[in-house]
Amino acid sequence: MRRLLLASCLMVGCLIAGSLAPAQAQAGWLADAWQSTKQGAAYCTEKVKDFTAAQGARISQATNRARAWVRGKAADCTPEDRRRNYGLQLAAPLDDSKRLVVLVHGLDSGPELWSDLSELLVREGHQVAAFDFPNDQPIAESGALLASQIQPLREARPQLRVDLLTHSMGGLVARSFVESPAYAGGIDRLILLAPPNQGSKYARWNCFSEIAEHYSLWRNDPNWHWTWPFVDGVGEAGRDLQPGSVFLSELNARPRSAGVRYTIIAGNRNCGWRYCAASLQFVAGYIPDWRIEADDELRDGLTNLAARLRERPSATDGLVRVSNVELAGVDDFVIVPADHATIVRACDGCPPAAWETIKDRLSDY
Asked: Which three-class secondary structure state does DSSP give residue 335?
């Protein structure tokens, strides 16, 4: 209270002194005071920034050590047969006369994502391999794992043509490999479906997709173990996917890989509208049972509204903005009417929306 009273008295004194001084003196005094205040504020701001940066670095280092400790302890507690086979999964012996398309899934996903496109690729005469990895670990570690799988294959089969087809975060995993200074060549085409090259703000909520992924594994995989969510990673991938993250800044500062032909395919339909349309269509299907007046008109109205929602263009595919998909140095950029899921999965009896573009690029020898 005493300090507050003293500060108030000083302020009143300054105001009285200022009011008694000549106008010219007042102006000079006020200008000097304002300049001193700005300098003091700038000094304090810089000190706060320095302190925050120093503490942020310490917190980041401590967090990384804690994450590594948790993953290590979880791995020690996990039964040997619990893990999916991380790495390349080949469906059949390789034929050097055919090109090999390596499929790389995204965050909180797995090889099952590619069931629709795999079938289409095989029909076109391509060989298919799925690359599985701990999808919640640091993206750079996943890129290093991909390199450790591809490079020995290329050394053993130098005549084999290899392409990478990726979805979402899988595109960053692939780029981390082919744009690494240690990359020794061997990849012909890199086709990126909905890659968050500039990040995705929804990555901060990836804990919910992690829960959904492991709930599904718990229900369907008899080998599921409670440590799996921790061995897969402890949120590092979600951190790397944040717009402006250290990982993205470093990755995007690298040049595009010489000799690799890039194609980016983005979707401009919001998956939220598809879910709304499905809900409206579900309700419309029950209207004839309600036996209300004008039920045909109401059903038709809901059906038409659902159709309009499905075709409604958007600046995002629901998870990644179209502008965040773009990448400097890549001119082969295609936008298709799809959301983050239907760009890679069949929907309503139609093939994945990216299929025609994929087929065209892979047919170009």
From this structure: strand
